[in-house]
Amino acid sequence: MINLLLGAAMISFAAVFVRLTTVGPDVSAFYRMLFGGLALAVFMWREGHVRRVNSRVIKYAVLAGLLFALDIMCWHRSILAIGPGMATLLGNFQVFVLTAASVLVLGERPGKLFYLALPLAFLGLYLVVGVGWEHATADYKTGVFWGLLTALFYAAYLLCLKLFIPRLGQERRLALMAMVPWTTCLCIGGYILLDGQSFAVPLGMDLFWLVLLGVVCQAAGWLFITRGMQAVSAALVGLGLLLQPTLSYVWDVLIFAKPLAATELVGAGAALAAIYLGTVGGRKR
Of 79, 109, 220, 257, which sees the most CB atoms within 10 A? Predict the structure, then answer.
């Protein structure tokens, strides 16, 4: 459980590091994957996983990397528009998209708790972003749109992993997860080139935040979570992973002085409760 909580706490700083840099959302996403991929490559080499990369792993990693690139690029845009806390909360609505996709694609059916979580999620979403929507700025509305797109693409990425991982042997699963940052990096880098953006990092502090983003959040955080999930029940996994959006909200308030209205606070609590219920509600064959 300690590994799970530590990993979730590490990842909760991802949105903070994105907000602290002065580079654009695509460039920060690129370096996040680059530095995270380098850190995972070192881990793979030390653990002897490099030799387990084959053509099937690469093929799966390309498709998963494309979806993860879309997820990260949308999320970074949302962070810069509406802040780390709300962007992370909206991205975690992937639980409901993933459940719906699992029903349609994998023939699963939602657990009973999911039906309780769904109206609670809509209530939380309305209280967080719906109240006063008509008076919100265009940038704010666009940020909410990017946040919901994040949930969509992240759910698609997770669904791909659900389909791919059973087709790989146990030894090649870590190889796939270590390859995904590299294929994601290539996808984002290709978009940056086509869009005419610069890869330059103007400030030394920008490079510092980007290294932390890749090494701590992308690589170390997920390694801790992966190991922690193996030792606890599904209910504790769901509870532990809630630490990420919760802490992201806390950091947003403490570091960036995010104002909190009572309705938003209640809505965030309802949304977090819904995400937890949706996570542990389970999907049955």
Answer: 79
